[in-house]
Amino acid sequence: MGSEESLISEEAKAAIGKETKRYLGEVSLQDLQRYAVTVGETNPLYFDEEYARKTPYKGIIAPPNMLSAIICWGAGPVEEELNPDGTEKREERFPLKVKRVMGGGQDLEFIRPVRPGDRLTVTTKLKDIYQREGRTGPLVFTVTENLFTNQRDEPVLRCTQTVILR
Fold it and tell me: Of 46, 87, 90, 101, which has the maximum CB count within 10 A?
């Protein structure tokens, strides 16, 4: 990486491997059906209990990518607490000398279906943080693992996501 200044603070490097746990809430039938409609999903597995009972799932389930797609659980922040792009303002977990944030992709491992009434918790762990030189200058990459569990502490989804910061 040469002699360029690192955009990654020592505090950020020290956060690698640390976990935080957060209760997200209960998934309602209405929530999962609204999500399905929003993404254009019409599978009766998400809408028709009689149909869904005849499948290997034995009942209605949430669309598989619903958990990783929701940015803000619950009612969400009031308008004054939103960033200009409409996303929720969040406290930084660690300082970085960057100004822009971009999605870098997700790897999803679907472990078990999510059902109406499931109460979900997510455990988040920073797996890695590193800097690379891009065409327009240095970029910071964070790799985070989110493990979603239900009320029985059973894993339902593992989402490993990369975020690119500049």
Answer: 46
